[in-house]
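Consider the following input, taken from an annotated entry for Glutamine amidotransferase domain-containing protein (Brassica cretica).
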Amino acid sequence: MVVVANDLSSKTLPRVLVVSRRTLRKNKYVDFVGEYHLDLIVSHGAVPVIVPRVSGIHSMLRSFEPIHGVLLCEGEDVDPSLYADKELPGLSQEDMDEIRSLHASDTTIDREKDSIELSLAKLCLERNIPFLGICRGSQILNVAAGGTLYQDIDKEVGTTTKHIDYDNYDEHRHEASLLEETPLRKWFDEMDQIMVNSYHHQGVKRLAERFAPMAYAPDGLIEGFYDPDRYDPEEGQFLMGLQFHPERMRSSDDEFDYEGCVSVYKEFVKAVTAFHKKQLDAAEIVMEVKKKKITLVKSFSGAEVLESNTVLSKQQENRLKQMGATVRNSCVYMKRMKRKEEQERAMDKLSAERLSDLLSFHRMMARLCSDAIKSKLLEPADSDY
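Applying the prediction step yields:
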């Protein structure tokens, strides 16, 4: 059941970018995104912003700022030139022809979509923006972080596990073992095995170093991974890839196979929301800093030492005049203020996340100091003997 938070229209909601997939309809291309993804994002209080798969859009991604989260899902095979293992020979032309005949809908490379999604994935890795990759999206995340893929699981792994069934698309399931002490294991009620769907003939070959596996198929193929150093939804940290489709693991009456399927999106949106809040907090800090900036004007007459966009008290103003405001004194004062301005400019260069972390640290220190002061005041005074 989808429940949308009350009065969402009156709030500034976090934004999740989702890249569309292109298909041919009536001799024209149409872009689309699966409705289940969008429903689950909206139901937990975020706004999906669709990035159309349009030529040149990869160079305009900054126009979609602010970005609070990215969800990448289905699509064609990732261009093998983006992750090719130079030490190992690729598949033969005969193998490739056979793969194309079996998986005709997936093997058409879409380099524009690759470019858009890799740019977004790298942006998330660099700025720690919450990221959820489903199926192809998980493969994009791994490639963006330096990992590689199997071009075809059957040819390269020789698997007996069926990862795609064109005749039984949504109902097909296979086992997946969940690793202990991972988010996936927690979401699925500490079950060591679940039955998952899958629609893919490619998969993670070499997992990028920063990631840790969360689930395996019976043939050893990775079904889920995450960055353990960047997982804390409460703090806006979430970098994860799932090879299966939790959004489509439903029965005929639209009930999910497991509550964990919903938890995937719930925890992702929780991280997106926390990241959004951090950005808002950081923006407030920047505004406060800008309000307090002082512009100095050197005065040789001694009548005025400075002009300020922050109002000085009458006492401060009189004190400055009493100092004589000589050229020498004003220069010393200006140097001090220049150092202060340099420090403030350094603050401006910090990322929103760093500023937010800095704010959290100082608030924590303020609380600790306050508690220490209270404790000191409550201590009995030392008696003289």
